[in-house]
Amino acid sequence: MNPHRRSIFVKTMTFLVYSFLYLPIFVLIIYSFNSSKTNILFEGVISKFGDLQIVDGNVLQSPCGPFHWFCELAKNKEVRSAAGNTLEIAFISTISSTIIGTLAALALSRYNFKLKPFSEMSLYIPIVIPEIVMGIGILTFFSQVFNYLNSLIGLQGDARLGLGLFTVIVSHIAFSVPFVVLVVRARLQGMDQSYEEAAMDLGANELTTFFRVTLPMLLPGVLSGGLMAFTLSLDDFVITFFTNGPGSTTLPIYVFGLLRKIITPQVNALSTIWIMVVFTVVLLLQWLQNRESSHK
Amino acid sequence: MFDKLRQNKSFQGTLLVAPTLVFMIGLLIIPLILTAVISFGERDSSGGVIYSFGLHNYYKLIGYSTNCDSGASSCFDMLYVQILWRSLTLAFQTTMIVISLAYPLSYFIARATPSKRNTYLFMVLVPLWTNFVIRVYAWMMILRTQGVINGILGAIANLLHIPFAPLEMLYTPGAVLVGMVYEFLPFMILPIFTSLEKIDNSLYEAAADLGANSIKTFFKVTLPLSMPGVVAGTILVFIPVMGTFIVSDLLGGQKVILVGNLIQRQFLDARDPTFGSAASLVLMVMTLIVTYFYTKKFGFGEEIIVA
What we know:
Strand content of chain B: under 5%
Order of helices and strands of chain A: HEEEHHHHHHHHHHH
CATH architecture of chain B: Orthogonal Bundle
CATH class of the largest domain in chain A: Mainly Alpha
Largest sheet of chain B: 2 strands, antiparallel
Helix content of chain A: over 70%
Oligomer: heterodimer
Structural class of chain B: mainly alpha
Strand order of the largest sheet of chain B: 1-2
Distance between the termini of chain A: 34 Å
């Protein structure tokens, strides 16, 4: 029996589901070149380069040609600051949660201690509880703490503590750490401990053993844990929605706010860039991984 | 002193896990307890919280009114019960549709040659890397009165010279269902694939040798062995659907109100965090009950980690 035989039903369903998955992506990309300003109908691609000409809400000619909406997007200050915030939050929370989570994974797979069962249980909280419950919980927590501190220190006006980049970053670390721990721990469990024992037998202390033996072997797990934390942070809407404040708007929050009012091809241009960047980064990482595994 | 600590494995373990615990306790457990405490309190005139103990928010949720005399026609108002029920049924519907779409695709990938498997999986992940909000926006463009579907249907009608009235698809419960299915489909595909991939081909051969036809093989071999994946996928789909408010907000307009929308409004528009906390506590208990009974029956699949 051929192990790769699949029925016509399975093949048809597969084709339909893939089409369903990709239809919206294609629509997003095609409409980012739309000449219609209101983006209701697809009026065709802006084909001419030259001075900006708009007739009846239709862009006939633009200095950027078909990339008119991409240029408009680049001029948009709010988008630029939101993109900056998104990346800043993602980088800081990824680095922090990767370090914190890797330490915990080491503890959970190599040590026995009293708090171990409790620690393991707490890691499943973000998986089994809806994000919105965590979001409003964190919001309530911060507002109560800030209220208390503001009145305790007597801060007034702009000096008062409130929601902002700090609260978003800290919350992102909180929901990323469990995923990093689970990924890194899975890698640790599949690792042979005899290398570490050999290093210790040859006289290396714990720190040397960790940095010269454990960490290099663990690195692929740490990297995929970090990548997961990064994507979680980039994609997060709900937690950020409840914990952001003035000056910490991220791209998803900005787009959501925009969509409740108007629809503009600028959002499509943004989506197209987003897809292209992520696609390139992932392909690059895959290529690096393949190169590394072919070296071994 | 230092040497003693270096020997103390238990102390070292606690030290390594400490930063994680600070975050888990500080930003997950304490906020959850705080939510529970506040849900029994009252709101003050400025939208703040007065700490007290009363069940009024829960009475309000089940629709029981304490001031019946003040001219109200009925003591019970089922509005919030309806919202909870709507969220629950939508989550069930979404999960069922997602399983039936994800299963054949996962089976297709699991039975592909190993070299092609990665490419197919990669193709499942690509849509997931666009942002959650952006994916909802794409469906707004497709389903609008003058959107992609109506544009195509209109063009066909025009060719055939039949009169065409655009379909009203956006801002309906159906649009919300489509959006939910689209958003969470990949979270079902990955765990089902992982458990299907583990099934040894010799089992299929054995079933065939023993005279089972393909339908019987599916129900006696494939499906039971892939249940851990289906369970993990269900947890990854059901729970977020229960709590999401973006999809219903953007694709349902103001018409489809789910418990997520209810909670969000209490915190941002209605300014009654105590009632919002009670609603989110009920939401949490509902999802925990479903997850508990579901995993008790089928087991908690380790496949949950892959997604």
